[in-house]
Amino acid sequence: DGAKLDKMPDLLIGLSDRLNVFKLSQDWLFIECKPVDPGHSAGVHY
């Protein structure tokens, strides 16, 4: 219903270990999934 916003990504993919990274979040892909159907087309709604 949109009353509660989830502030976390839907999917996280960790990459390889790197010892010289200042922020560990640089080695992750943060993916937000959206519904795509006849009522929510990718070119119009997102």
Q: What helical percentage do the residues reach? A: under 10%
Distance between the termini: 18 Å
Count up the domains.
Answer: 1
Rg over C-alpha atoms, rounded to the nearest angstrom: 15 Å
What is the H/E order? EEH
Strand order of the largest sheet: 1-2
How many helices? 1
Describe this structure in words.
This protein is mainly beta and 46 residues long. It has one domain (11-45). Helix content is 9%, strand content 17%. The protein contains 1 helix and 2 strands. It has one helix at 42-45; strands spanning 11-14, 28-31. Strands 1-2 form a two-stranded antiparallel sheet. The longest helix has 4 residues, at 42-45. It is elongated, with a radius of gyration of 15 Å. The mean pLDDT is 75.
Brief overview, please?
The chain has 46 residues and is mainly beta. The chain has one domain.
Describe the SSE topology:
Layout: E1 11-14, E2 28-31, H1 42-45
Antiparallel strand pairs: 1-2
List keywords for this structure.
mainly beta, two-stranded antiparallel ribbon
